[in-house]
Amino acid sequence: MILEGRDEMNGTETADLYVGFIAPLLPFSFLAVLTLVALPAAAFLGFHIGRVTLSRRQVDGVLPEQAPGATSLGAMLALLGLLLGFAFSSALGWREARQIALVNEAAAISTAFLTANLVEDPGRSDLQSQLLAYANTRIASRADIGSMEAWNAFLERTLEAQAKVWPATMQAIGGTTSDPIRAAVVRSVTDMLDAHTYRVAAAAEQIPPPAKLMIFLASVVAIFVVGNRTAMQGKTLTWHVFAFAGLLSVVMIVIFDLDRALEGTMRVNPDTMNQTIREMEAALAASDD
Q1: pTM, 2 dp
Q2: Are 39 and 220 in contact (CB under 8 A)?
Q3: Contact predicate 223/42, CB 8 Å
Q4: Of the four listed, 36, 135, 163, 273, which is most buried by Cβ atoms within 10 Å?
Q5: What is the pLDDT of residues 217-250, one digit of tens each?
Q6: What backbone torsions phi and psi does residue 198 show, to the nearest 5 degrees?
Q7: d(CA 68, CA 128)
Q8: Helices (H), the chain
Q9: Closest listed residue to residue 181, CA positions, set 130, 114, 129, 105
């Protein structure tokens, strides 16, 4: 929990606190198109290079059936399958961790809001209002992730809202509040702030860029060799090779999509947090009536 010195922080310093959130080298849409184009192109290029090699080998009297590379191709495809399996498992696990972290944070905010009912006004209303304001900053919109500047501004807003919760908690538990009630309120608020830490940690986990590049290059090389060996065996480049390239492209795109915490089509579902916010707004509206 970081509760002091917030007023002295600017956008750059806020971003420095979350070094796990870095601008991707390529936008997801561009990466998806690149993957869909690169793998079939690698098969096509490998096939044409293989035809040139085959013509030279035929001049030397080497038969197409004697084309080498079967063992190497099998090893490449086995290694590629292993890499994709580990990458998919990691990306899916981290996405589930991000979803669980969001649900846990929503539950912690709701618990802190309900526990605040144990204290008397005016501290109760102020604390609950601050909790609601903080909850509203815990969901990033499309505009908030459109650029690193917008993301830094979003981080600054949520940290500023977080910094106001603890002073409101101290004010709410002052006066004649009993020690058990104080302990319950403080524990619920600190659990909520800890949930923020867990969620940030889960959101920052992703496949390292060098590992993504390795998977991409391994896929391109494997498809290149498939096309090359097809030509060297005297066969034509059929739709089966392109189907395999397309399927491999889809698998890689899904892995990259799962791995992107702030971009792509498989972002975490914010319904739990939205429902918590609506319940808090309804409770505050009812208390005002």
Answers
A1: 0.80
A2: yes
A3: yes
A4: 135
A5: 999 999 998 888 888 777 888 888 889 999 999 9
A6: -65, -40
A7: 72
A8: 11-17, 28-59, 70-115, 123-136, 148-172, 179-204, 209-232, 239-259, 271-288
A9: 114
